[in-house]
Amino acid sequence: MLERFRQFWSNVWAPLGDLLLKWGVKPDWVTWVGTIGVSAGALWFFPRGQFFVGVLVITAFVFSDIIDGYMARKSGQSSKWGAFLDSTLDRVGDAAIFGGLVLYYASDKAKADLGDPKTYLYLSLVCLVLGNLTSYARARAESLGMTAKGGIAERSDRLVSILVMTGLAGLFHWDFLREITLWALAVASLITVFQRMMIVRRQAVVKPELDS
């Protein structure tokens, strides 16, 4: 759903991308810096319960995912290696965000703040695993010559949802916003996995008929 806004953000960040290219910065460098920034922000601030600051830091780096793509296209440096690196490091950043929540819910601070946070520790783990599984399903389908894009909770939807609600929860101390979002993402991610499986199955059934 939120993929439709990618072109808008590409236009917003185009001047910065042009400036970086002028300075000789490579798109891959931006990819690395963005992933390190997102991961550091999530794994440093989230376990300490500093959610609002953590989201601000993550947001400052998360747009690198758009900037590096723009830079690669603009400079003609698009490559299979760049696409592979970008997709792989995206998984690292996503895992760090939910991993940071896992560490928080496993901490003494969470126990002091929430009493018994085990449910949300497990939900954070579920979101982490299913988020990577949805991405794997798409990548595996494409490696077999099929497509598996789609579903009710694509990566951008999951990322924006958890960051916005975690940030608001940290700002106003409304923990229920983050907790409701974890429930919603766990269910939506599971549905998305099955949706992508059905998308691939339909293609796999039709393909032998076409080959014959």
Would you write up a description of this structure?
The structure is a single chain. The protein is an all-alpha fold. The protein has a single domain, classed as Up-down Bundle (Four Helix Bundle (Hemerythrin (Met), subunit A)). Helices cover 82% and strands 0% of the residues. It is built from nine helices and no strands.
Q: Care to give the gist of this entry?
A:
The chain has 212 residues and is mostly helical.
Provide keyphrases for this structure:
Four Helix Bundle (Hemerythrin (Met), subunit A), flat
Main sheet record: none
For the secondary structure, the number of strands is 0
Q: Provide the β-strand percentage band.
A: under 5%
* Number of distinct helices: 9
> CATH H-level name... which superfamily?
CDP-alcohol phosphotransferase transmembrane (TM) domain
Please state the structural category: mainly alpha
Low-confidence stretches: none
Tell me the number of structural domains.
1
CATH architecture: Up-down Bundle
CATH C-level class is Mainly Alpha
Helix share bin = over 70%
Spatial gap, N to C terminus: 36 Å
Overall geometry: flat
Order of helices and strands: HHHHHHHHH
Name the average pLDDT. Answer: 90
CATH topology assignment? Four Helix Bundle (Hemerythrin (Met), subunit A)
Please give the radius of gyration in angstroms.
Answer: 19 Å
